[in-house]
Design brief:
By secondary structure, this protein is α/β, with parallel strands linked by helices. The chain contains 7 helices and 7 strands, in the order E-H-E-H-E-H-E-H-E-H-E-H-H-E.
């Protein structure tokens, strides 16, 4: 195992910058936090479970990076305001927000209660809006610079059994496009991961295991994506190379939305995995 993140981007790319990563205690957020820290950023890890955030912080410190933890339920407006203010007090600036925190449960639309629907929408849409608004109003607006990345999902052809999440993610894409106009010169973009081999796959019930294991057959590139491939997209959009990119959505999905028929590829394409602490989800082992 490597001892540090193997990013494709140049060393020190984000030196002197401060990046907030929500949902930084696991999965895509943990991976992105590691890469940003490895590239020189000071990272503010935000999430509900402080123990998970502390674990990521300690990993980053061991690799030579810097991170601090902030327990926050992004669905609560006052808590979000206080958390962003605390980050500014600690770091003095906010250059980037990776709006990654989210979650959902599998269920057909007809069985989703109003409470369940609202819980998912508040997590995947309202919370992201609150985090972005506070980063903008408390710092980026006055600074006249900054970049926001909203992590959404492959929801272009609907999300069967995940209709609440699909609706929220679609709303987040529209919010991205609106904010890119209203908040310029702050850049606001989205990254839409498809089926990614992340720890989140292990959170679904046992009856979904077989379906999850069959997903590569539906992907034109014949495999699931890696956390590192999503993180690389995030880092690109935060980098100077994307200085003229705003209001866009970068899909990281192996062309799944373009598939018109069952995939017949015999061999998977090579994967990129630069995250030195990545592990294969149990459901895929």
């Amino acid at each position: 195992m490597h001892s540090s993140y193997r990013s494709v981007f140049r060393e020190g790319l984000f030196a002197g910058q401060v990046a907030i990563v929500t949902g930084g205690g696991s999965g895509l957020g943990r991976c992105a936090a590691h890469e940003l820290a490895a590239l020189g950023a000071k990272v503010a890890l935000v999430g509900r479970k402080i123990e998970k955030l502390n674990s990521t912080r300690d990993e980053i410190a061991k690799a030579g990076g810097e991170a601090r933890c902030y327990a926050c339920d992004i669905r609560e407006e006052e808590t979000v305001k206080q958390t962003v203010a605390a980050i500014l007090a600690d770091f003095g600036r906010i250059d980037a927000l990776v709006n990654n925190a989210g979650g959902q449960f599998a269920a057909p639309l007809e069985s989703i209660s109003a409470k369940g629907w609202e819980a998912v929408v508040r997590t995947n849409l309202t919370g992201g809006f609150l985090m972005a608004r506070e980063c903008y109003t408390q710092w980026m607006k006055q600074a006249g610079s900054g970049a926001i990345i909203n992590i959404i999902a492959d929801m272009w052809h609907g999300m069967p059994t995940m209709g609440h999440s699909g609706a929220a993610r679609a709303g987040m894409l529209n919010f991205t496009e609106t904010a890119a106009f209203e908040w310029a010169p702050v850049r606001v973009n989205a990254v839409a991961p498809g089926w990614i081999a992340s720890s989140g796959l292990d959170n679904y019930p046992p009856e979904m295991k077989q379906h999850i294991r069959s997903l590569p057959k539906l992907v034109p590139l014949a495999r699931l994506g890696t956390e590192s491939e999503v993180s690389a997209a995030i880092c690109y959009l935060l980098s100077p190379a994307a200085a003229f990119v705003s209001g866009s959505c970068l899909r990281v999905d192996g062309a799944v939305p373009n598939a018109k028929r069952k995939n017949t590829n015999a061999k998977p394409t090579p994967a990129f995995d630069g995250f030195h602490l990545a592990s294969v989800p149990k459901v895929l082992q």
